[in-house]
Specification:
The complex is a heterodimer of chains A (108) and B (174). With 108 residues, chain A is mostly helical. Chain A has 3 helices and no strands.
Chain lengths: 108, 174
């Protein structure tokens, strides 16, 4: 197997997607601040989109479906990031902190 | 070997390896760095790598959208949020869960390993026939015919997200 022809194999992309997902999951558990968790969630979502694109390119009979699904994942991720960031700003205004451990009041 | 590197495939393979390295390295920076602004930069590097992978997957349109939406819009807005809500203490200062990183590493590593094993061992079946070439023209046609309903729905979702973000950001300000 030639190392320069890795880009034409399905397994390479599956491994990259799994790496992105695993690293994002590790960060989601490890991070204390809300922004760090949001960054990890973005990594997880891009791992999922990469899997969709890989299967779309190599296996799917209609190579349009995966691209459109990935576009919609991008749209949802943009909406999610906008909402999450404004929630984080509102939380910071009330608590003066964005560490997830500090948000222990049930009633603000 | 030198002759082989200078061919089109050889250079493409080198670029592909660089793109893969940028993806993994950027993701590691994004989850491991102490300062948040560095984590945002790592996320941007990783997403640029993912855009390169999309390019190798024969869809330059998605690569451009990844650069525009993720690296441009999402990365810049996260950077703005870091500037507006700068945490005073370091990210992992308090040791409430001393074993948290360890268990996180175990869980993430197990998930990653499991998905790699399943992906490598399965005998994926190729489609017998492709109905189109997956070009940008085909994507545009499908967006405005088969998927026009979803297209409209996601624009409604984005509109609601904008309004919600404005309302959340405005509350509490006097």
């Amino acid at each position: 197997m030639d190392i320069l022809s890795l880009s034409s194999q399905l397994n390479t992309y599956l491994i990259m997607g799994a790496f992105l997902f695993g690293i994002g999951f590790y960060g989601l558990i490890n991070r204390r601040s809300l922004i760090g968790m949001l960054i990890s969630a973005e990594l997880i979502m891009s791992g999922a989109s990469l899997n969709f694109m890989a299967f779309n390119h190599f296996l799917a009979p209609d190579p349009v479906v995966g691209q459109i699904f990935t576009l919609f994942i991008m749209g949802i991720a943009a909406a999610e990031a906008a909402i999450a960031l404004s929630i984080i700003i509102a939380v910071y205004r009330n608590y003066k902190s964005i560490a997830a451990d500090d948000l222990n009041d049930l009633k603000g | 070997m030198n002759q082989e590197l200078l061919t089109q495939q050889g250079l493409g393979g080198l670029v592909f390896l660089a793109v893969c390295a940028a993806t993994v390295f950027g993701a590691l920076i994004a989850v491991n760095s102490k300062s948040l602004i560095r984590a945002v930069s790592g996320l941007c590097l990783s997403l640029i790598g993912v855009a390169g992978l999309y390019y190798f997957l024969n869809s330059p349109f998605l690569a451009a959208m990844e650069m525009l939406i993720y690296v441009g819009a999402v990365g810049v807005s996260i950077a703005f949020a870091v500037m507006l809500a700068e945490p005073k203490q370091e990210d992992r200062a308090d040791g409430a869960f001393g074993l948290g990183p360890f268990f996180g590493f175990i869980a993430g590593g197990l998930l990653c390993w499991g998905m790699i094993v399943v992906g490598m061992r399965t005998d994926w079946m190729k489609a017998a026939v492709k109905v189109n070439d997956g070009s940008m023209l085909a994507v545009g046609k499908a967006l405005l015919t088969s998927y026009s309903m979803v297209f409209e729905l996601i624009s409604v979702v984005l509109l609601i997200a904008i309004i919600g973000a404005l309302a959340l950001g405005r509350r509490g300000r006097n």
